[in-house]
Design goal:
Length: 313
Amino acid sequence: MEIVDAAAACGVQALKLQTYTADTMTLDLKEGDFFISDPDNLWTGQSLYELYQQAYTPWEWHKPIFDRCKELGIIGFSTPFDDTAVDFLETLDVPFYKIASFEMTDHKLIKKVAQTGKPMIISTGMASVREIDEVQQTAYEHGCPEVVLLKCTSTYPAKAQYSNLLTIPNMMETFGCAIGLSDHTMGIGVSVASVALGARVIEKHFTLNRADGGVDSTFSMEPAEMKSLVEEANQAWSALGEVHYGLTQGEKPEGRRSLYVAEDIKQGEVFTAENVRAIRPGNGMETKYYDIIMGRQAKTDIKKGTPMSWDLF
């Protein structure tokens, strides 16, 4: 509940859980494919079953968490990992579903979720264009009204140089739907950059304190960081604006240089580099007319500081 409160205080719009048990994820074996031995893996030395036992959110916690989300004005939803999780989440009337990268090729699960008739956010880590197309079409064909695809790099933590954010606008064009980012990098830079490229959804892991530990704590954001991400992402979004040239609100052309009389000039005197200069402010003639003015005669007496105009010569 403290995590929910802290997330809402940061300004996030939604909070996502994961709905599974160790038994619905894998087999209780500590050998072969079921034991993590890769030294580069964050969770090496554990069996998959042990890892999921540590990481899962007890199902009886879901309703109180979702109720608290509603009280705080944010959306509570979850990632299901099998049919039983979908059935359970339907009893809680979640508004939409998230599909994890590793499950996006599980078409049986995709069909089950799509048949709820609710929108789906799908992470696409490791997926080819063909696989993304297949999961999107499967979702639509079985009743899903809307799909949001998340660009994702499925390493934990991920490195910024492998994020390939330029894929986001290509995904928008290729798949014709809203695109977002599931971001496992440290910090906020990658997420904020994704907004400039069209990301509509940002997903980040969250913890009260990385020092508290937990299976994903090392690449989770703390409250101050999440608050900063919310603020900067909103700034980036508002800064996108529209294609626009010329003056915008608050800009004043007076700041530009223009042509001014730099010394008192008598009628009939010639304009020279000494008595006409390109200076600020910008209320005189544009400086591109400088060469036209040079050598012309003053029509009348002109006081120093007068903005140049066509009727002065």
